[in-house]
Amino acid sequence: MLVCADAGADRYMKYEKDGTAAERLPDAIIGDLDSLSKEARQYYTTKEVHIVEDPDQYSTDFTKALKWMRQEWDRQKGTNEELDIVVMGGLGGRVDQGFSQIHHLYMVLEQPDLLRGSIYLLSEQSLSFVLDHNENELHVNIDVFAENIGIIPVLGPTRVSTSGLEWDVSTSNHIKSDRVTITVDGPRPLFTLELAKRLCVDDR
Fold first, then answer.
1. Backbone dihedral angles phi then psi of residue 202, each to the nearest 5 degrees
2. CA-to-CA distance for 22 and 145, rounded, in angstroms?
3. What percent of the chain lies above the pLDDT cut of 90?
4. Position 198 pLDDT exceeds 70
5. What residues contact 21, with CB distance under 8 A and at least 6 apart?
6. Where are the domains of the chain?
7. How is domain 126-199 classified at the architecture level of CATH?
8. For this UniProt entry, which residues form the secretion signal (predicted)?
9. Is the pLDDT confidence value at 75 over 70?
10. pLDDT tens digit string along 3-62?
């Protein structure tokens, strides 16, 4: 399932036209559509992409998109099936929007009506997600990820122990093994991995 949140459709249209996007159309464009350009709206309307306008100003376009995807997933697969979501461009641009994206990583942990599954934020240089309680075992492909990682206690102090990293505990660390374990006792921290240089995107 591929969904664009409001003006995300403009960026996807750009990637479509320059040949860097996958050869498929979005399943839907969701949001209050205040940022969607007339060009993108017309372009996807002619291609019969489902455009959903939700005027609710008490939720973000990202929240609207999550709700739509959950409802569509439940309709297709049933309510017991989990859905994991990868958000492209999840931590780029405005700082307030970046914090909002991180907030959503934690929102879905407490709100199964919003999403049953996990969110992964894929930005121009990194992949970020929330670690589980207890032991996390990560198999790291060095062709995909660089050595730099971060363990960030967003919700407050937590107890963490690790193996496969250069230092046992540090908010900034280095991967030293293709198998990393991180054990969490307390509030779940944010985990971020730097992408290999060949995969990093430079929009300048």
1. -120, 110
2. 21
3. 63
4. yes
5. 12, 15
6. 3-122, 126-199
7. Sandwich (2.60)
8. none
9. yes
10. 999 999 999 999 888 877 767 899 999 999 999 999 999 999 999 999 999 988 888 999
Relative to beta strand 179-185, strand 159-163 is antiparallel
Alpha-carbon distance of 159 to 168, in angstroms, equals: 11
Q: Give domain 3-122's CATH superfamily.
A: Thiamin pyrophosphokinase, catalytic domain (3.40.50.10240)
DSSP letters spanning the chain: --EEETTHHHHHHHHHHHT-S-SS--SEEEE--SS--HHHHHHHHHTT-EEEE---TTS-HHHHHHHHHHHHHHHHH-TT----EEEETTT-S-HHHHHHHHHHHHHHHH-TTT-SS-EEEE-SSEEEEEPPSEEEEEE--TTTEEEEEEEE-TTS--EEEEESBSSSS-SEEEB-SSEEEEEEESSPPEEEEEEPGGG-----
pTM assigned to the model: 0.87
